[in-house]
Structure formats: structure tokens, C-alpha cells
Specification:
Number of domains: 1
CATH architecture: 2-Layer Sandwich
Mean pLDDT: 89
Helix content: 10-25%
Largest sheet: 7 strands, antiparallel
Radius of gyration: 17 Å
Number of helices: 3
Structural class: alpha+beta
Order of helices and strands: EHHEEEEEEH
CATH class: Alpha Beta
Distance between the termini: 48 Å
Shape: globular
CATH topology: Alpha-D-Glucose-1,6-Bisphosphate, Chain A, domain 4
Length: 161
Amino acid sequence: MEIEKTLVTAAPPARVWELLLDPNVMGACVPGMASIEVLSEVEYIAHMAVKIAFINARFRLHTKIVETRAPHYLRTEGTGEDASVASSLRQSSELFLTPLDDGGTQLRIKVQVDVLGRLGTFGLSVMKTKADRMWDEFGANLLARLEPQGGQHAPPAPAPA
């Protein structure tokens, strides 16, 4: 399954890049993330729980940053499995940061995920719907961490009547 999404933030690329490289910040933004073990600056093991349809899966994901071009490009690869639901996955992600004229950043992500085993038997539409919901939640969480730093771009809240 291929997923491509875009997110725009008022934060500058350097700030977004800094957060992308912080496993604890990124882990806190990912829906279902239980914990992250930092093996090195470029290698992590994440423990996460995901519910797809009627199946609750708990994945142990081994992820590695395999290429960086600071502060514009990041590529990761990872594998994970959950023996209890006889499923595994392989993923590769590419993140592209583009500076915007107003000082903000466009974050574009391309993810290729292959789900095998019991979870892989679900139709593409079920998996895509779940992925879209997870992206929306991730994006909201990431923006919440970024926007207070660059809040000058946020419009003022309307006064109560």
C-alpha cells in the first residue's frame, strides 16, 4: 500500500527537522505508540498498538534512518511483527521538507507499507482508511508541537460575544 500526504506548518524547516530526528517527540505524535527504545541515533524499536477492524495488533517495529539530507530529506526503513495475530509489516518512508515563502514548511511524506499475514487479508480500502485516520491524528499531534514555537502565524482567536 502506498500513502502520500502533505502537511503545512508555520514552523521553519530547521524546527521541523529537529523534531523529525527526535524519536521521543515523533513517538509521542504517532497514534498507538506505547514506547520507543533508542538503539542509536539512527535506529529505534517502537512498540505500538493498532486496531484494524476487529483485530487488535501490537507491533514491535524496528526502524532505521537510512538516508538524510538535512534539513530537506529523510528516508527510513522498518520491519515489524505481531505473533499473536500472525502478521508482519515492512515499511519505507520518505519525508520531504520544503521551505515556504512565509517562513513556514511543507512536509510531504511518501510511505510504502506491505502488510503480511492475518492483517494483510483485509482489503486495501480498510487499510487505507486506517492509515488516513492515523495520518490525520499524527499531523494534528505534530502541528500541536510545532505551532507554539511559531505561533506568530496563527490568527488571533475571536473574542467571545
